[in-house]
Write a structure and sequence with these properties.
Number of domains of chain A: 2
Strand order of the largest sheet of chain B: 6-7-8-3-9-10
Structural class of chain B: alpha/beta
Number of helices of chain A: 20
Mean pLDDT of chain B: 88
Oligomer: heterodimer
Helix content of chain A: over 70%
Order of helices and strands of chain B: EEEHEEHEHHHEHEHEEHH
Low-confidence stretches of chain A: 444-452
Shape of chain A: globular
Number of helices of chain B: 9
Order of helices and strands of chain A: HHHHHHHHHHHHHHHHHHHH
Mean pLDDT of chain A: 80
Helix content of chain B: 25-40%
Distance between the termini of chain A: 45 Å
Distance between the termini of chain B: 41 Å
Shape of chain B: globular
Strand content of chain A: under 5%
Number of strands of chain B: 10
Largest sheet of chain B: 6 strands, mixed
Radius of gyration of chain A: 25 Å
Number of strands of chain A: 0
Largest interface: A-B, 41 and 43 residues
């Protein structure tokens, strides 16, 4: 294996990857990740305190979280995405006389470098926050972070190994293997939960600690919480390095053969479909034009990975809603709840912004349809499943919250406003996502925007979107913020009227905001000339 | 069928002048060829005619209907096929055609008949329930052609309809163009295939650097280019674009 060839490949890939635009995007993304990690870890700690969780259970949580990451990587490994490649890799690198093993080495090195680079700031912030909570010294938090980063690299190696192994006869049976392997990893990873069951011998839970996720969680959590011993940590760390070396050696051996044909080229906006033949579901007979537009949008979402992304987003928002309520943070600060919801929504609106990638604007713009109305119908089709998931959760969380606050009318008003506020913010951030995608997003894979120009447009879109969405939702947050003062000033007798009035005001405002954003989205589509 | 009148049309992309004072009249039922080197402004002209791009100045009228001031009425008359038609890959062929037919205002009964008839004539019946994303390039082109004519347009605007197609599909597409022109549809055909332009077009315009440098039938173009009376369109085209387009190599 020639290290100089690997060095050349990595150097040029880095040159191509880290443009000014990507660096700007990286800075924005990292800032948001850090804010999110701070909020998330604080919520988790108050949740742990509230329900009396122990440090031992934090290890379980860490192990489970890392197990989920591992399962995701195993899946992408079996999907052929374990070694990400671009079409220019296929055209120029794969046709060059560079041996596959060196391509493998360079790809793994680049992936590890970027993962460590991107993962370093939020992971360190996370462990520093925990170290502050447990009163452990900060160098220990850094060590814990390094262990987690080693685990991330192990995961990438495993994913790459799985992908290149597909070219060696596993491909035909890969679905069965994948499912068996994922189930095995999940089962073993979930074993620490048995600690919660009385009478179950702790040795069963110990079984999970031989896996990389169990080892990484044990060391990291043990370090930041100050509960582990040095010798045990060293042994665990050596075991973790054994996993790393094992996967590396396996990958190097597997990469001797030709594996290029199993790699999936990442093409933005291009969806893969497992089943080429489908039952036609778009029955337009007797339906209005707009009903057909909504139906088409629903079909497109359901047949692509977006359905899964939408579901995960809804589950994430729901989970957050539940944990925030259970931790008691909701009652004490409904305003912060809405603000955090906005941050999560800003990430989630990425799914909304994908709508323009799926559209074929030449068809729409050469047809006699109103773009404003078209965008509104697409929004209706997209917001419906999100509200479908979120509304029952909001009601389920809201009823006990309202009942528990009946004795505290001044706090009750904030809770009453914040609950529908969650749904309103989800709607506004989605409408905002659609507007900024209409203005800056790439409409289809054959558009003429170069990738660098598109990256810059994406950074600009994300910044503008975040600022404008924050401005649009700030009146809702403000309303919740002043609700306690308002409730105190009007007194208990007029509280119901005030609550109804304020909810109506916030709903009207949200409706107006969504309408404004969607009108602007329609106008932006009409004005686009980049195709 | 419609007559297309383009008056002093200009289109700027920032500092770049893509169309420079273009004026053309395309007669009702005529097949009008549009030729030009890469980057000459052909696609920009076609996109402006169909209302996808807004003119910087000038007017485009389909009979008396202005595409800028009355776009919805004008678009009902137009069937447009772009150079690289991207389709909704997540819809089946049937769903895609139903969707396009619906947004172009085709009546339900007529739409069903049109889809069935067109799929049959393009031998795509067995692909009715296939996802568009799973079709070959040639099949996608056929589906795009069907979508272009579902609403029986009075004006067809075809941008490079034969690019990168295999010989069999090229024959199908040529036959389709022939059937549409026999129906009397006004057709604007942009192509790099000079044989196709020569065979199908009654008149041809040559565009270069955003300007129309010659318009007429083959005989009049030969005269403009000072070529032999039996010169092929290719020679005429090269001569005209070399003179007006200042192509040093050809000179």
């Amino acid at each position: 294996m020639s290290l100089s060839t690997i060095g050349v490949l990595v150097r040029y890939w880095i040159k191509g990857r880290f443009t000014k635009a990507t660096l700007a995007g990286l800075a924005v993304g990292e800032t948001f990740s850090i804010i999110f990690v701070l909020f998330g870890s604080s919520t988790f700690l108050s949740f742990s305190n509230k329900v009396g969780l122990t440090t031992g259970l934090s290890e379980v949580a860490g192990s489970l979280l890392l197990a989920l990451y591992l399962v995701g990587l195993i899946q992408s490994g079996f999907n052929g995405s374990g070694l990400p490649v671009s079409s220019s890799d296929v055209d120029y690198v794969f046709t060059s006389p560079v041996p596959p093993r060196e391509v493998f080495g360079a790809k793994v090195l680049l992936n590890s470098l970027t993962t460590v680079l991107f993962g370093f700031p939020p992971i360190m912030v996370l462990y520093l926050r925990f170290a502050a909570y447990y009163h452990t010294p900060w160098p220990v938090a850094i060590l814990a972070g390094v262990v987690t980063l080693v685990f991330l690299v192990i995961g990438l190696l495993l994913s790459a190994d799985i992908t290149i192994s597909l070219g060696r006869g596993v491909g035909d049976r890969r679905k069965v293997w994948r499912n068996l392997f994922i189930i095995l990893v999940l089962v073993v990873s979930l074993l620490p939960i048995t600690l919660l069951i009385p009478e179950i011998p702790p040795v069963i839970a110990e079984a999970a600690s031989v896996l990389p996720n169990g080892l990484a969680a044990t060391i990291s959590v043990g370090l930041v919480s100050g509960t582990s011993g040095i010798s045990a940590d060293i042994i665990d760390f050596v075991l973790l390095l054994v996993w790393l070396a094992g996967f590396l050696i396996l990958g190097v051996r597997l990469s001797r053969g030709h594996f290029y044909e199993v790699l999936e080229v990442a093409v933005p906006g291009l969806e893969k479909f497992n089943e080429p033949n489908q039952r036609s579901r778009l029955d337009s007979r007797g339906r209005s034009l707009w009903s057909v537009v909504r139906m088409k949008e629903r079909i497109l979402i359901s047949r692509t990975r977006e359905a899964r992304a939408l579901f995960v987003n809804a589950m994430f928002l729901s989970g957050f809603l539940v944990i925030y309520a259970l931790s008691g943070s909701f009652q004490s600060s409904p305003t912060s709840f809405l603000f955090i919801l906005f941050i999560i929504g800003s990430f989630g609106s990425g799914t909304a912004s994908r709508w323009i990638e799926k559209e074929r604007l030449w068809i729409l713009k050469s047809s006699p349809v109103s773009m404003r109305r078209y965008v509104k119908e697409v929004f209706r089709a997209r917001i419906a499943p999100l509200l479908f998931y979120l509304t029952p959760v909001t009601v389920a969380v809201g009823v006990p919250l309202v009942l528990s606050e009946l004795g505290e009318p001044s706090l009750l008003l904030g809770v009453v406003l914040a609950l529908p506020g969650a749904l309103e913010i989800a709607s506004i951030t989605m409408a905002g996502g659609m507007y900024f995608a209409s203005k800056y997003g790439q409409s289809s894979t054959d558009d003429i925007l170069s990738s660098q120009a598109q990256e810059l447009a994406d950074v600009r879109r994300f910044l503008f979107q975040t600022v404008i969405n924050l401005i649009m939702i700030s009146p809702l947050i403000f309303l919740v913020l002043v609700s306690e003062t308002l409730a105190t000033s009007v007194g208990r007798g007029s509280l119901l009227g005030l609550a109804v009035g304020l909810v109506v005001v916030s709903l009207v405002f949200s409706g107006f905001s969504v309408n404004l954003l969607l009108n602007k989205a329609g106008d932006a589509v009409s004005r686009r000339e980049d195709f | 069928m419609v007559q297309v009148s383009i008056e002093q049309l200009t289109k700027h992309y920032g500092a770049l002048v893509a169309l420079d004072n273009v004026s053309l009249k395309i007669n009702s039922g005529e097949v009008f060829g549009l030729l030009g080197p890469n980057g000459a402004g052909k696609s920009t002209l076609l996109k402006t005619i169909v209302g996808i791009l807004r003119p910087t100045s000038g007017t485009i009228k389909l009979d008396e209907t202005d595409i800028v001031t009355n776009p919805e009425k004008a678009k009902r008359m137009i069937g447009y096929l772009p150079e690289n038609p991207s389709l909704y890959t997540g819809l089946t062929t049937q769903e895609f055609l139903q969707f396009v037919g619906k947004i172009r205002g085709v009546d339900d009964d007529l739409l069903d008949r049109e889809i069935s008839g067109s799929l049959k004539s393009f031998s795509l019946e067995d692909k009715r329930n296939s996802l568009v994303g799973s079709l070959s390039k040639g099949m996608k082109q056929k589906v795009a052609l069907i979508a272009t004519s579902l609403h029986s347009p009075d004006l067809l605007v075809l941008d490079e309809p034969l690019t990168a197609l295999d010989p069999k599909t090229r024959v199908s597409v040529k036959d389709w163009i022939g059937s549409q022109t026999n129906r009397g549809v006004t057709t604007i055909l942009s192509t790099h295939d000079l044989d196709v332009a020569q065979t199908h077009s009654e008149r041809i315009a040559i565009i270069d650097h955003g300007k129309i440098i010659a318009v007429g039938n083959l005989d009049s173009l030969r005269k403009m280019a000072n070529t032999e009376s039996d010169a092929r369109l290719e020679d005429v085209f090269l001569r005209l674009t070399a003179e007006k387009g200042e192509d040093s190599i050809l000179k």
